[in-house]
Amino acid sequence: MKLLVVEDDVRMAGLLRRGLAQEGWAVDVTGDAVDARHAVSSAPYDAVVCDVGLPGPETGLDWCRWFREAGHWTPVLMLTARVGVDDRIAGLDCGADDYLGKPFAFGELAARLRALLRRGETARPTTLVNGPLVLDPAEHQVRWHGEGVELSPREFALLDYFMRRPGDVLRRTEILDHVWDYAYDGTSNVVDVYVRYLRNRLEQAGAPEVIETVRGVGYRLAVLA
């Protein structure tokens, strides 16, 4: 799952990137509204965390309003030091889905993002199902024939992407773009390494080799009966 953080405070942006990456998100960070416009126009995101107090003439509220008027309905969580009722109303009226005051506990931020995912941009299913393989994005759980499968955050994010595209051949560059953030240079075989990790985890749980290699192209998640 891929997340955009729009935050000009370098320290806060770094904390958000590290914390959310540990939760299994691929996190891109921009520091102002202009860069955020370019980001959402060039890549799909599952959610956006945006600070209200951005530098320049365009605030986070202005950016969120533009985002909605441009036809984007990805969930948006606004961050701000202003926690008055009028401020919360302004944030929600500009198109935000949720509003969290600073300072905040990171656990609450993560929980609110999971709640937004359950609601989704469109009628997103609560769980992703491919035969006996079931993935719950909000609860961060994977089951094979009803039994839990333990995955690392990155393995979970990788399987989540495969589960959203069953039967499709996914190129390594596509997987890098969605599961890793754009700060990753893509020069190593990280996709191959993590596909191997994921296969091993699934095989240990009793699943057959459900992720197929398409030579010279990438990988495909088999459509299971």
What does this structure look like?
- The structure is a single chain.
- The protein is of the alpha/beta class and 225 residues long.
- The radius of gyration is 18 Å and the shape is elongated.
- It has helices spanning 10-22, 33-42, 60-69, 85-93, 106-119, 153-163, 172-179, 190-204, and strands at 2-6, 26-30, 47-51, 76-80, 98-101, 128-130, 133-136, 141-144, 147-148, 169-171, 211-214, 218-221.
- The protein starts with a strand and ends with a strand.
- The chain has a five-stranded parallel beta sheet, sandwiched between helices. Strands 6-7-8-9 form a four-stranded antiparallel beta sheet, with helices on one face. The protein has a three-stranded antiparallel beta sheet with strand order 10-12-11.
- Residues 121-125 have low confidence and may be disordered.
- The longest helix has 15 residues, at 190-204.
- Helix 6 (153-163) packs across helix 8.
- Helix content is 40%, strand content 21%.
Strand content: 15-25%
Query: Order of helices and strands, N to C?
Result: EHEHEHEHEHEEEEHEHHEE
Tally of DSSP helical segments: 8
Task: Count the beta strands.
Answer: 12
Largest sheet: 5 strands, parallel
Helical content stands at: 40-55%
Rg result: 18 Å
Structural class: alpha/beta
First-to-last CA distance: 25 Å
**Strands in their spatial order, largest beta sheet:** 2-1-3-4-5
Shape: elongated
Mean pLDDT comes to 86
- As residue ranges, the low-confidence spans are 121-125
